[in-house]
Records
---
Amino acid sequence: MNNDYLFLRPNIQVEPLFDCWYAWSHLIPPATAARNLTERHLKIMDSYINSPQVHANAVKNPKLLGGPFIDYGGERVAEIAALRDQTKRMRPHLLELSAAIAALDDTLRTHAKGSSLQPLYNMTPDALKGYVELVYDLNNNPSFRFIEPLLYQSHYYDRSAQSFMMSVLTGDDRPFVLSTPRLASDSLFHLRIPFDDERVDHLFRLKSVPRPWGEIKEMLEVSEESEALVRSFLTPEPPPPYSPYRGRGVRWRYFGHACILLEMSGLAMLFDPVLSYTYQSDVSRYTYLNLPDSIDYVVITHNHQDHVLFETLLQIRHKVKNIIVPPNSGGFLQDPSLKLILKRIGCRNVIELNEMETLEWENGSITSLPFLGEHSDLNIRCKAASLVRVGNRSLLFAADSCNLEPRLYEHLYRQIGEIDAIFLGMECDGAPLTWLYGPLLTKKIERAVDESRRLAGSNFEQAIDIVRRFNSKSTFVYAMGQEPWLGYIMSLKYTEQSRPIVESNRLIQECLSQGLSAERLFGEKEILIEQIN
Ligand SMILES: [Fe+2]
Ligand SMILES: [Fe+2]
């Protein structure tokens, strides 16, 4: 039996965790991880322990979707209390780091009034000394930046918080990742290895290349009592073979949300990888089984959890040759380096492409374009739209770009000319600033201010301006979070009356009335673009 050659089943969910909370990109940099630990995880756990029934009721209320409520029906207080206590015991340095960030902010607010910042280095909390530079902007607003690579080398970066939870997935419903920690149970296998461990690649290679059960058991350090469970995650049945696109031109396939695979003359490029697992469902979709063996470029548009999904990135890491990301602004708390984050989770060949920079290959290129807005007006540079050219065709992947200033696209048009197809997100309501960035704030923000600072993409007026500006023949609204398998990372449910649906319907109607093609993508879609010079 130890010699049976086995594959990993395609419906085995492998969630990356940080102290049992679903790991997303702010849980890797020590500073953002520390703030999320104290201001999100511990607060939500305390609240659940004090009022479990409030949480149980709140998760049933559609108006509170995406709120800070643990989705365990109020019944797992003892386990949550144990997780909270263990977190406090195991991560004192992160508690200290979080408090030090708040203290430094307070020092700057109180003492930095435009005069030299030099005396404030002495007042900087010890935990941060040597890891930060204090700065003003040109209007004497004080701030500080982290020397990020050094902080990763310190004891504040602790891989022992990282692990994976494996289980069988049979449907799309999963608890919301920002609110519900993952607790152990008999049907879950807790794989305690860090994200950069090479066994992660060995594990996911099992999706396409079988190995003997004896080897797998040893590799995953499966204990005797977990043997039957882990064995049930494996199968002797090989996956269906994948046939890469070998035709002329480009084939693009929509995998849901902003995840799009381009295949052209032997080159594969995958945008914002977010994959569903493979199981029976009413909504047809492409999954891991529809990826080529090798992906030349993964392109990430910006650092939001629905565009940088570790759960997918770690599954495909072994087949990815290069990852293109936008650079950050240099160490500010709200804008950590995506390149450093991805390197820390074990990704290789991470390339930063700056605004208006181009990377070329035979018969094609990708140019990074400015991406305004959708980040609550925070100084966050880690975001870019991408222009892909193949032969004489051009495709613009604008992700959640918000057209705050049409003149930007006027300038861009002069540089890049007309575009054949535009992919644009239109999540034009957007969550308020605190929904994602709240844990980074060290001073309470007024509700009205919070509500006005949203993570909002383009509305109809803003979107149609982009389409007209580039004379785009085809428009695809995407990245709307509507696929059912995205609920656990997006927590968004639209109706026909929701503004993003109303506004995107208007855009589609307007394009169609002009004789242009337009649609809102949902589920899966394949298009061949064959005429290429
Ligand atoms: Fe976004
Ligand atoms: Fe998004």
Note: Residues 302, 304, 374, 400 surround fe (ii) ion (ligand 1) (CB under 6 Å).
---
Amino acid sequence: MADYKAPVKDMQFVLENISRMPQLAAMTTFEDATPDMVSAILEEAGRVSAAVIAPTNVTGDEQGVRLENGTVKIPDGFADAYKQYAEGGWGSLQFDPEYGGQGLPYSLSTSVMEMWQSANMSWGLCPLLSQGAVEALYLNGSDQLKSTYLPNMISGEWTGTMNLTEPGAGSDLSVIRSKAVPEGDHYLVTGQKIFITWGDHEMADNIIHLVLARLPDAPAGVRGISLFLVPKFLVNESGELGERNDVAVASLEHKLGIHASATCVMAFGEKAGAVGYLIGEEGKGLACMFTMMNNARLAVGLQGVAISERAYQQALWYAGDRTQGKAVGFTEEGPILRHADIRRMLMTMKAFTEAGRALAYDACGSLDFAHAHEDKTLAAQEKARAAYLTPIVKGWCTEVAQEVTSLGVQIHGGMGFIEETGAAQHFRDARILPIYEGTNSIQALDLVGRKTLSDQGVAAHAIMKEISATVEQASASARFSSAARKLQAALVVAQNSTSQLLAQSAENAYFPGAVAYNYMMMMGTLCGGWQLLRSGLAAEGKQAQGESDPYLEAKQLTALFYMDQILPRYLSYAAVVDTGSEAIMAFTDEHLESAFS
Ligand SMILES: Cc1cc2nc3c(=O)[nH]c(=O)nc-3n(C[C@H](O)[C@H](O)[C@H](O)COP(=O)(O)OP(=O)(O)OC[C@H]3O[C@@H](n4cnc5c(N)ncnc54)[C@H](O)[C@@H]3O)c2cc1C
């Protein structure tokens, strides 16, 4: 089985050339993010992820989590890995120094987060959700709540969770039934939440649950939902931990993958009611939670990149180790790596992974600019850019992770289907990614509805304008001019599909839903090609300046491979958008079961 090695060189390249780290470091807000600092952080995080966290991945999968006397018992090595993570200050990189953060760019912490997710996705979910909880509390909480809870959450002494889902409320959160009744300076929260990631564990001293619930007189629907902070242990006025709150784990789920992540059914207020504190205004809970969900959606897209990277490293190692047959052009038996179709699969894995990484970091970089720009117009443009890219990062990167981890299994042949190689675990673990944090159907609807139809395509066209500028730049390069023509052809089709989407949706209410998935995949395929062309051009520029690292040549070949072998998929996605939804709408419930009724 391959050991995980953090792809520090690629991360650094993407931060420098795609997500604009040098420009960020030139701004006062992020002046500490010097090249030396970025490099030191990536190197050390790479060491911790490889030496401390990655070794817990397989044992975690085998041992899983168990519920004993109401407490979640975790696999060997998890507590120590978490201790080292917290003591290293890894959870504080991007947060406000006023609460103990280090004030570094979010895009930098994103690359570090990618390492944790590659090393062990089950374990990595705990820091991932904690960071989302910090973000939601920081942006929406009162000063008192922030000063009481944020320092310990940012330091990693306490972790955070997100409690949205209920048995009757998954994709549609407007029907949430959990209740919160005012009592003095707090509320008493009751209700059941399901599928709560890391709802309990003993890695940290306290767990801060962010919970959606309704006030007694709240109106039905989204406007009646409020957000509450419910600690596992109550915190007294001097900041010390007090009594256990009325929140308990009712049971743990048994899952297809991420066996070592505790997915809990949570019972709030079964005795006297769980003490909770309102975050933000009454009735604005979903809007507050969206700050956490947007952050988490980017992070789940990043998990798609992370698990793809891990699957690629495993497949590459196996393809170099396994001997089978003579490849064309060789007289002796050799590693399967020599076979052209194995190379196709490896290159596909690598191209998807690097395209996804560039796209995810780029979106996070925009959030950094939105935060650091003093010019409000520029800040708003960057925010809109990140918002547009978020469902593509979540949807596309996690869809392609299914293909990448499946190719990882395929490269192993029969051994891929056998657990001991580890390829199967990546495939199983990746399967949750298109489901949680808003299924990819919901991401596609978000891209089409909220991000495209609602502004009549303004944000979409802004991205397409950027793609056009990259095409123009690439046209002047002998090496990339043909790739530029291919991307230009894809861009023209995407522009037409967007016009088609806007026009047809105005006529036919079913149209957006019927084409949304294919539209999202078309835009993802286009944006992936755009990011790799940007990367290829940057690598070519470095080579022209005399840098001779083979990594730079590989980057350019990866971009050319994508244009030849992956980009053409845009045509089939676009064809569905263009032909529309007639067949889907013509199909009745009766038709669906007509073959066996
Ligand atoms: C391992 C795991 C961890 C999780 N962690 C958390 C957590 O920490 N906190 C938390 O609150 N939740 C968590 N969840 C819940 C997760 O976010 C939901 O499962 C997810 O949002 C889907 O909701 P659902 O399961 O109720 O599916 P449903 O909403 O019932 O959806 C079923 C199918 O219908 C489709 N569908 C539903 N509505 C629409 C629509 N309007 N348009 C098109 N298609 C639609 C969906 O895409 C899906 O394919 C977790 C789930 C799992 C499995």
Note: The CA atoms of residues 158 and 205 lie 6 Å apart.
